[in-house]
């Protein structure tokens, strides 16, 4: 960045971010086709630059894993690991485990050779982790992600082990009504900045997808548009996007309205408000704005909040759609007027 630690990003910073962001989007969308899919790509990138994690949920075969791989493969000099979650996967298969070693640090073949134990890192130690079909793993294994997603570290034998910086988890899951799936607990859902569904591509996009498949084109052919250093620079620019007091009050009032809504059993947590604010910073930077506006907040409420709410079941045993509940909550909260009058205390 060209600014000091406390100041807003400069015009040059924002132009740099916008240029790389659009190149990133164009690269991924050359493989992930469709207008709705393009919007999903942008939302995943908001999570990447806001240092959040994203959950892709949809039917099998709609390019959830391909989207995650395309984003990871568009960045140079980062470590990418893919974890295929299965019912027999153990927590240590994800985070790592303590192993016995001999005096030379090699795996000890017998008890006599053991001189100490050392931590062998699991596949979660990467810059970008694709957690594929997360809800096919047991709840115990799913819970292994809680600490690392919240704190970017793994604790083993009383010692903390940091994951690389930056760290992004892109998880995919099938709908919970699919056979062999386990619903993710609310505590883990709350760790994801956004939950997205890709949907089916439009007719022209699906034609292009089939043409790519016929030519055996895969995401490995995508250009690497940014490197790790540029990625960290862009993250730093997002951190400096201004969130003024009006916007903070607006987010807090949305949270309060969600907790008081008659159709919602469990409303927004403080973590949800933080996630909404950070994602809005990334959206503001993508449109070259040095500060977050109410429109940035409103545009991201459904993907950031819907998966965190627990709808209240009515007397007929039905629950309202969480996305509609979010829209209802946001509509009930007047946005800032831009002059600081509505939120002045």
Descriptive overview:
The chain is of the alpha/beta class and 345 residues long. The chain has a domain at 241-345: Helicase, Ruva Protein, domain 3 (Orthogonal Bundle). It is built from 13 helices and 13 strands. The chain has a 5-stranded parallel β-sheet with strand order 3-6-9-1-10. Strand 7 and strand 8 (159-162) form a beta hairpin. It is globular. The protein starts with 10 loop residues before the first helix and ends in a 14-residue tail after the last helix. The model has no long low-confidence stretch (mean pLDDT 87).
CATH superfamily of one domain: Magnesium chelatase subunit I, C-Terminal domain
CATH fold descriptor of one domain: Helicase, Ruva Protein, domain 3
CATH architecture of one domain: Orthogonal Bundle
Helix and strand sequence: HHEHEEHEEEHHEEEHEHEHHEHHEH
Identify low-pLDDT runs: none
Distance linking N and C termini: 34 Å
Helix share bin = 40-55%
Give the integer mean of the pLDDT values: 87
As laid out across the biggest beta sheet, the strand order is: 3-6-9-1-10
* Radius of gyration from CA coordinates: 22 Å
- How many runs of DSSP E, i.e. beta strands? 13
* Coarse morphology: globular
Q: Tell me about the largest β-sheet.
A: 5 strands, parallel
Alpha-beta classification: alpha/beta
Q: Roughly what fraction of the amino acids lie in strands? A: 15-25%
Note the total helix count: 13
| CATH class categorisation of one domain | Mainly Alpha
